[in-house]
Each structure stands twice: as C-alpha cells, then as structure tokens.
Design goal:
Largest sheet: 3 strands, antiparallel
Order of helices and strands: HHHHEHHEEH
Structural class: mainly alpha
Helix content: 40-55%
Strand content: 5-15%
Strand order of the largest sheet: 1-3-2
C-alpha cells in the first residue's frame, strides 16, 4: 500500500468514526479532574479549565492548542494524544488496555494510533 493509499484509508476510517458517547465525554472529564486531588496525589498533569479549552488553550503547561491538534495528521501516537488531553501517556495506555479510551483508535498489530478527528471532536465537546 502506498503512503497515499494508506492516508486515504485512514481518512475513510476517520470520516466514518462516530462522535464520542456521553460516557466517553464523562470519562475525559474525570481524567481532567486530576487537579482537584490533593497535591500529594497529583501527577505532572493538572486539570484543564473549560475556559482554557474554549479559548483554544488545551493545557496550562504549553500543550497544543485546538488549532494545532486540528492540523495534525489523520492519526497520531498515543503519547502525542495524551499531551492534547492533558494526561500522562501511561494513563492513556491503561485506558486503552481496559477498553475505556475516550478516543477512537486504529489497532496496528500490538500498537495503537489515535484518530485525530475523534480527538478533536472530544476536545471540542469537553
């Protein structure tokens, strides 16, 4: 498969991906509530206020803006998607392992790629 055919195939998958369910949105909100926990329990990632998402700032620590995420390729790595969500890559991998990922995935053997369109829709709805 040529790179162009691969990209077209992934675009077809992205275009047919449904919007995240309300349960997925609730899971993301729960993930983003890390900032509400006691300081000793916090990870390096903190809560992302809704006002930051609305203003195009996705993470308080210089993470990608919504416009930047929209310009990403059709699929991105799990660590890159985790930065947009404001969570650690290990946490997102754990959600994937449990079948609770709030984004759509393309399984490639033992690896996963995150469909950027589902990531954008999730962040727009947050």
């Amino acid at each position: 498969m040529t790179p162009e055919e691969r990209e077209a195939h992934i675009r077809r998958i992205v275009d047919s991906a449904p919007l995240p369910s309300p349960e997925d949105v609730d899971r993301l909100r729960a993930l983003l509530s890390l900032g509400a926990r006691a300081p000793a329990e916090r990870t390096a990632h903190t809560h992302v206020p809704a006002s930051d998402v609305g203003a195009g700032r996705l993470t308080p620590s210089g993470g990608p803006t919504l416009d930047e995420v929209r310009s990403w390729p059709a699929t991105v790595s799990v660590p890159k998607a985790a930065t947009a969500l404001g969570v650690s890559k290990s946490h997102l991998y754990e959600l994937i392992r449990r079948g609770e990922a709030p984004v759509k995935l393309v399984p490639l053997g033992g690896r996963h790629r995150v469909i950027t369109a589902s990531l954008v829709r999730l962040l727009e709805g947050a």
